[in-house]
Specification:
The chain is of the alpha/beta class. It has 7 helices and 4 strands.
């Protein structure tokens, strides 16, 4: 049985109206994920706020080993979206106890791609909206060139705070893992939860070879992993 502590940040009663449904949705998500992976003990923090994914009213963040934070807009609470968000974060939780979320662009693409595929493995349905985004021509080539870059802009790659189309990092990561799984059908997002990032380089090269328009970005040298952990599932304006 999975062990987790549930914490509601509710001193001002913003969550009171959705606490029973949130508890039930959390139990359902944990039970569904536990059919595929052995979850480590963790703390689940639920808070009210506006740092949510566009159109969903919920956002998730796994900031460190053993920790998940779910942010809700209580006026838009939907159990199914809460469950999908938490299952996504549960894969990050497991990965934290292996290679970690990652400090380079390649690691972030792998972590997000695996989490998105884990949602499909556990819950089925279509890819979540961010995972369904089609990266623009040349983006896979740029990602391959910047694969080991510590100083990458997480907000630009994943949240559209720059020249990259919003959510493109999620879409590219999703396609990266799909390419890998097409070559290794015996694997799935659960069995790959602790896989090192270098295992996915060949799949990224395959995507790069089929990319439309090359971008003139210099090859980025490998650098030591000492950058701060980027946020996952940050607010969209």
């Amino acid at each position: 049985m999975s062990i987790y502590n549930l914490h509601f940040l509710n001193a001002r009663n913003a969550l009171t109206g959705v606490m029973p449904e949130s508890r039930a949705a959390a139990r359902e998500a944990v039970a569904a994920a536990s059919e595929h992976i052995d979850l480590p003990p963790f703390d689940l923090i639920i808070r009210a706020g506006d740092e949510v994914m566009t159109g969903w009213g919920v956002g998730g963040y796994a900031p460190a080993p053993g920790q998940i934070q779910i942010t809700l807009d209580p006026t838009r609470f939907a159990p199914d979206l809460f469950i999908r968000t938490l299952v996504h974060e549960l894969h990050h939780l497991l990965r934290w106890d292996g290679p970690g979320y990652g400090k380079t662009l390649g690691e972030a693409l792998v972590s997000e791609g695996l989490a998105g595929h884990f949602v499909l493995q556990v819950l089925g349905g279509k890819p979540d909206p961010w995972d369904a985004v089609a990266p623009s021509d040349g983006l896979a080539r740029r990602a391959m060139n910047e694969w080991s870059r510590l100083g990458y802009d997480h907000a630009e790659w994943f949240f559209g705070k720059g020249q990259v189309r919003r959510w493109s990092g999620y879409g590219l990561g999703h396609r990266l893992i799909a390419e890998y799984l097409s070559q290794h059908p015996q694997e799935d997002a659960a069995t790959l939860a602790l896989a090192p990032v270098d295992r996915f380089r060949a799949a990224m090269r395959k995507l790069t070879n089929s990319d439309g328009t090359p971008e003139e970005t210099p090859e980025d040298p490998a650098t030591p992993a000492d950058a701060n952990e980027p946020e996952d599932m940050k607010k969209e304006d």
